[in-house]
Design a protein that fits this description.
The complex is a heterodimer of chains A (about 120) and B (about 110).
Chain A (H helix, E strand, L loop, with lengths): L2 E3 L4 E5 L4 E3 L2 E3 L5 E8 L6 E7 L6 E3 L2 E6 L4 E6 L8 E9 L7 E2 L3 E6 L1
Parallel strand pairs in A: 2-12
Antiparallel strand pairs in A: 1-4, 3-9, 5-6, 5-10, 7-8, 8-9, 10-11, 10-12
Chain B lengths: L3 E3 L3 E4 L5 E7 L5 E8 L3 E8 L6 E2 L6 E7 L2 E6 L8 E8 L9 E2 L3 E5 L1
Parallel strand pairs in B: 2-11
Antiparallel strand pairs in B: 1-3, 3-8, 4-5, 4-9, 5-6, 7-8, 9-10, 9-11
The chains are: A mainly beta (about 120), B mainly beta (about 110).
Chain lengths: ~120, ~110
């Protein structure tokens, strides 16, 4: 069975601070995919990034960056110079090839960015 | 713009009522999913379907059933609603075999059972 843990339930920062959201996953599969989604107050899940288990290269997209480390089963997400519009719930998720395409989600981290 | 549409944004039902939550996708996706979202628990899979009339139980199927009579529509049914089913319900879809790709989510239905 798969499991995703987001230990931080809520984080509050002041605008322009950097913030890292932690994600730890468990799976016995060697082929898997990791995701981050953003859920703004409107409710719809917005896809941010997907990584496969064979690609440990870190990725940067504007103010967002992701650190994937198989050795520690972690896939952490950093927002640099946070903005009020970054306030949302962020979910880390895992999908494995032999589990019917479903996503296993972590409990989510609510990020509040104050002006 | 591709879409997953959930028929109701907010719903209030009474205990014991039969409740239907509807989800329609316009992407010709084979796979469709129903998740329940609760604070601190994230999204948990209730049921999924990989083809018309096919369904599989997810992690928390108790108290729910589903129907998939047409490829584009996946309905979640609460046979007899209870207060512990008050939650946000999210529908999603993706293409068969596209593991790790192209999940599209609806905006959610916030159900309150009183």
């Amino acid at each position: 069975a798969q499991k995703v843990t987001q230990a931080q339930t809520e984080i509050s920062v002041v605008e322009k601070e950097d913030v890292t959201l932690d994600c730890v996953y468990e799976t016995r599969d060697t082929t898997y995919y990791l995701f981050w989604y953003k859920q703004p107050p409107s409710g719809e899940l917005v896809f941010l990034i997907r990584r496969n288990s064979f690609d440990e290269q870190n990725e940067i997209s504007g103010r967002y960056s992701w650190n994937f480390q198989k050795s520690t089963s972690s896939f952490n997400f950093t927002i640099t110079a946070s903005q009020v519009v970054d306030s949302a719930v962020y979910f880390c998720a895992l999908s494995v090839t032999n589990a019917g395409n479903m996503l296993t989600f972590g409990g989510g981290t609510r990020l509040m960015v104050k002006p | 713009d591709v879409k997953v549409t959930q028929s109701s944004r907010y719903l209030v039902k009474r205990t014991g009522e039969k409740v239907f939550l509807e989800c329609v996708q316009d992407m010709d996706h084979e796979n469709m999913f129903w998740y329940r979202q609760d604070p601190g628990l994230g999204l948990r899979l209730i049921y999924f379907s990989y083809d018309v009339k096919m369904k599989e139980k997810g992690d928390i199927p108790e108290g729910y059933s589903v129907s998939r009579e047409k490829k584009e529509r996946f309905s979640l049914i609460l046979e007899s609603a209870s207060t512990n089913q008050t939650s946000m319900y999210l529908c999603a879809s993706n293409r068969q075999g596209a593991v790790g790709y192209g999940y599209t989510f609806g905006s959610g239905t916030r159900l309150t059972v009183v």
